[in-house]
Structure formats: structure tokens, C-alpha cells
Amino acid sequence: MTPALAAVTAVFPLLPDPDQAREWAERELNDPAYRAAEPTIIDRASQAVASFIRDLLTPSDGADWGPPALIVLAILLAGGVIVALLIWGRPRRVVRAGPAARALFDGDDVRSADELRREATEAAARGSWDTAIVLRFRALARGLFERGLVDPPPGATARAFARAAGAALPAFAVSMDTAAASFDDVRYLRRPGTAEGYRAIAELDDATIRARALTDGAVAAP
Predict the structure, then answer these.
(1) 166: number of CA atoms within 13 Å, CB side?
(2) What's the angle, vertex CA 202, arms to CA 199 and CA 203, rounded to 5?
(3) What's the CA gap between 164 and 215, in Å, rounded?
(4) More confident residue, 18 or 208
């Protein structure tokens, strides 16, 4: 140690010597916080690409390259898009959910049309015509709602639904009104259902399933 450094050390005894100072500096630089602040490989790559494009669009002689430079830039952008598609794949299409289930005709039944049809068929096989008529009319209404052809407001009656369905499907307007009357007779007036009443609603339901909606709002019978 030189006399001058020895004198400084005597005055400031807490000052480290050169070796100790270098050790402290290396230890400090090895702190993870410094490593986290360093640019990543992606950062360096993006900076290199940006620098390349900037140099490409800024000629050294000050001349305007015009369309050629834009063509090269477009090629680079297209290449970037292709690489992104190869790495991450195509964007997923947004699947639109169907209409939310809604209770129909003063009930809380939110079963699908297929479920209602299946249970109506089982009830008809047992000869339970009251239950079969109620379930099949609900299946008819649910099916039209699921297809987006009729959207009754909450609390709509069977007759109101039949009018809306008849407006959307004019070819079945009369049959819709008759089916709604059968539903009301069994559901509210407690009149016994019949096999003929059930069969009429089932045939109407099947016909609306086969029907093809036209662009003008009318419906072509199958």
C-alpha cells in the first residue's frame, strides 16, 4: 500500500481497499435485480428488426426510395404474419351461443325441444294424453325459439305464442292456433286430452322442423 493510500485509510478507516472494492462491485452486479433489468432475447431481436427497418427506410444518401422500400416493408410484414400463424395458429372463431333457455307458458320448464319431444313420446306411449299434449306443445314452442323464428316475451300465453308463430310462419298459422287451444283445454280447463289432439300437435311440430324458412319471412312446406 502506498503512503498516500495508507494516509487516506488512516483518515477513513471504513474505505475498502481495491481488492475488497472490486469484490463488492462484483457481488452487487450479481444481484438478480440487475439481471432482470437486462434486455431479453426477444427484446434484442425486436430492437434489431426495428433498427433494420429504420435503416432500410432511411437511405444514407438522403434519396427517397419510394415504392421499392414500401414493397420490401410489405414483404417483411407478410412474412411476420406467416411466422406468427405458424407459431400460434389461426385465431379461434368466436362461437355464438344460442338463445338462453326461457320458461314458457307460466312454467319453469327450460328443457330443450328434443328433451320435451322425447318425454312427450313416452307419455303418449303410456296413453297419458294430457301430459303428452302439454309436453309436445312446449316442444313445438321451444323448437321455434331455439331456431330463432319466434322470440316470445317472458310470460307470454300459448295463444300469444301461436299468434307470433303464425306471423313468422304463415303456412302454419291456423294449425298453431288450434294447437294452442288444445294446450289451454288440457292445461287450464282440465279437459281430457285425446290421441287425436296429441297427433295433431306432433304432426305440426314435425312439419315446422321440416319447413324451410324463405328469405321473405314466409315458410315453404316440405
Answers:
(1) 14
(2) 85
(3) 18
(4) 208
Q: Which residue has cell 372463431?
A: 93
- Give the span between the Cα atoms of 209 and 222, in whole angstroms: 9
Give the sign of the dihedral formed by CA 156, CA 162, CA 163, CA 167.
Answer: positive
Cβ contact 136:198 at 8 Å: yes
d(CA 162, CA 182): 12
Do the beta carbons of residue 117 and residue 164 sit within 8 Å? no
Q: Quick one: average pLDDT of 42-63?
A: 65
Chain CA centroid to CA 196, Å: 44
Q: Summarize pLDDT for 115-127 with one digit per residue, the tens.
A: 999 999 999 999 9
Q: Which residue has the cell 404474419?
A: 81
What 3-state DSSP class applies to 121?
helix
To which residue does cell 287425436 refer? 196
* 212 three-class SS: strand
Spell out the residues 6+ positions from residue 112 whose beta carbon is closer than 8 angstroms to its own. Answer: 101, 142, 146
| Closest among 161, 136, 133 to 149, alpha carbons compared | 161
Query: Is residue 91's pLDDT more than 70?
Result: no
What does pLDDT average to over the chain? 75
- The sign of the torsion formed by the CA atoms of 8, 14, 19, 21 equals negative
| Cβ partners under 8 Å of residue 130, min gap 6 | 186, 192, 193
Measured CA to CA, the distance from residue 176 to residue 162 in angstroms comes to 5
pLDDT in tens, 145-167: 998 888 877 778 899 999 999 99
